[in-house]
Write a structure and sequence with these properties.
Chain A is of the alpha/beta class. Chain A contains 11 helices and 15 strands. In chain A, the strands form 3 sheets. Chain A has a 6-stranded mixed β-sheet with strand order 6-7-8-3-9-10, with helices on both faces. In chain A, helix 3 crosses helix 4, helix 5 runs parallel beside helix 6 and helix 8 crosses helix 11. Chain B has one domain.
Chain lengths: 307, 263
């Protein structure tokens, strides 16, 4: 089956600065696809090109076979966009926000009305329908922004850091609702720098750094490949740590990697990490835990690699 | 190249206009009083009180002289407030445009809708002031000719023009404080020197030459003709000049706003 979104060798430069440097990926229908990366990795630039608000420098970008550059209105009509910063219309109340948005999409008012009621219901905003947008909490605004992105029944929902700035309760509620949408078969493209978010929601992930894709795969495959099953976090003074590391023979484990990030030393590689943890025998100073997406991220984008 | 200059306008412009209309219909009551009182203050303060000390060559009372100016000035302000401050707030602080252009509405649609709304505000304002002048006519005789009714359709042209100029400035402004430049260097001189408060011919020769390029001067001239019923060829020249500069300002506004929003 042809991919719903196709991105081939996508490049974006602003003058001499290359924001996106040859990116390739496909998103299949019904898939939740995650783009991870630190700030400035180029995630938002990819989204801007996809939503036709930033011209492509070179490469190919299609949605349902339609080229963004050739038919921006057609492509934008198929997308539901949830931007990084809420840009709800503060001059209009909650329900009117969605009505005006449906009108931008030229949706028949009757169809729009039933969709709006449904979206407000789904995002638990029905009783706030006449409220001022400014009176909503951060979490409610986010939910309303997602509800707004659904009024045109989009082929793809684009979420740019959907939970950034939310408190944990609000974040979990948003995740729950995104999972619900996913189960209904809504295709999603999600950017985030919360690893947990990506692991929870995404079928497939790419990690971007400095405009390039470093790796691509299913979350648990990436963890297995780049972090391993166990990771040890060492919080020891430098001299004590070096003494400890020199006591063990690390030559035998091919997956072993040791990485220093500020005052914490991460040890990747099962056997060695286990040995160290047993030796220190203090979980506050040597914490052995399961590998996670954050480890993958740090290993691929971090610095200070020892070998 | 040519395709780039021609604005990419669709029904989306109407959608944006409808958005502004809906916001207006939600808030108009709070604006109403100030809006209604404005022309009365000027008619009383300048027209009647200051006017007592003014003697004109052509037997007009000062308030009669002032009538075309009032019809030109307040609609200009209506368009300027909507498309300079208003547009800047929507552009920079509320992210309204960002949200709009993520839909099938193009940047050109959004700007065109904005300009059409500024024009609508100017139109409403001109109509209201004409109404005030008509109501006061038995006492003040501000209007001397039925041709003055043409002010209503004509007000669309300056409405478009001042909306375009304002939004062009909003698209290059980097901070709210920069609007004081716009106001003090462009709008304010236009306000005082366009011949609304004194006969333009009284200005020194060189100022008249410079003044010819002030758009508001031509609006006042045309209105003076319509209010008095005395037509001249210069009105046609003013009309053509206004249409030309409106078109240029529109193309400029679109280009500048594209540059601001599409990067």
């Amino acid at each position: 089956m042809a991919a719903l979104i196709q991105v081939k060798n996508l490049v974006k430069h602003y003058g001499d600065f290359v924001a996106v440097d040859g990116v390739d990926f496909d998103i299949a229908e019904g898939e939740c696809f995650g783009v991870l990366g630190p700030n400035g990795a180029g995630k938002t630039t990819v989204i801007k090109m996809l939503t036709a608000t930033s011209p492509i420098s070179s490469g190919i970008l299609t949605v349902a076979g339609m080229h963004v550059g050739e038919n921006p209105r057609g492509v934008k009509g198929m997308l539901g966009v949830v931007p990084q910063d809420d840009n709800l219309d503060p001059d209009l109340p909650v329900r009117k926000n969605l009505e005006v948005y449906a009108r931008y999409h030229n949706i028949d008012p009757e169809i729009a009305n039933s969709r709006i009621s449904e979206a407000l219901e789904l995002f638990q905003l029905t009783d706030r329908a006449e409220s001022d947008v400014d009176d909503l909490s951060g979490g409610m605004k986010r939910r309303l922004t997602i509800a707004r992105a659904l009024v045109n029944d989009p082929k793809v929902l684009i979420l740019d850091e959907p939970t950034t700035g939310l408190d944990p309760q609000a974040r979990h509620l948003v995740w729950q609702q995104l999972r619900l949408l996913k189960n209904r078969g809504v295709t999603m493209l999600l950017t985030t720098h919360y690893m947990e978010e990506a692991t929870h929601l995404c079928d497939r992930i790419v990690i971007m750094h400095r405009g390039k894709i470093l790796t691509e795969g299913r979350p648990y495959d990436l963890i297995a490949t780049h972090a391993g099953e166990y990771v040890l976090e060492l919080r020891l003074p430098a001299d004590e740590r070096d003494r400890l590391l020199s006591e063990f023979d690390s030559g035998s484990d091919p997956d072993l990697a040791i990485e220093r990030v500020e005052d914490i030393t991460y040890v990747f590689g099962g056997t060695f990490a286990n040995q160290l943890a047993e030796r220190v025998n203090d979980p506050r100073r040597a914490n052995l835990r399961l590998g996670n997406m954050e480890d993958v991220f740090l290993r691929l984008t971090g610095r200070g690699l020892l070998d | 190249m040519i395709a780039n200059i021609i604005p990419d306008v669709s029904i989306g412009a109407l959608r944006v206009w409808q958005r502004h209309r809906d916001v207006f219909l939600r808030h108009w009551r709070t604006e109403l009083l100030g809006f209604m009182i404005e022309p009365f203050i000027v008619i009383v303060a300048l027209g009647l009180l200051l006017g007592r000390f003014v003697e004109l060559d052509n037997d007009q009372t000062y308030v009669q002289f002032l009538a075309p100016g009032l019809l030109a000035l307040f609609p200009m302000f209506a368009a300027v407030f909507e498309c300079a401050w208003g547009s800047y707030v929507r552009l920079e602080m509320q992210g309204t445009y960002e949200a709009i252009i993520a839909t099938p509405v193009s940047v050109d649609d959004a700007i065109t809708g904005e300009i059409l709304w500024g024009t609508t505000r100017a139109f409403i304002n001109a109509t209201y002031i004409l109404l005030v002048a008509l109501v006061l006519h038995p006492a003040l005789e501000m209007l001397q000719s039925p041709w003055v009714l043409l002010v209503i359709p004509f007000s669309i042209i300056p409405g478009l023009l001042f909306s375009c100029i304002s939004i062009a400035f909003a698209s290059i402004a980097r901070a709210m404080s920069q609007f004081s430049y716009f106001f003090n260097l462009i709008i304010n001189p236009m306000f005082w020197f366009a011949g609304a408060f004194f006969p333009f011919e009284e200005l020194p020769r060189w100022m008249q030459v410079v003044g010819f390029f002030i758009p508001l001067k031509h609006v006042v001239d045309v209105y003076r003709g319509l209010v008095s019923g005395e037509f001249g060829w210069s009105m046609l020249i003013s009309l053509i000049w206004l249409c030309a500069i409106t078109l240029a300002a529109y193309v400029l506004a679109i280009r500048l706003m594209r540059r601001r929003l599409i990067q």
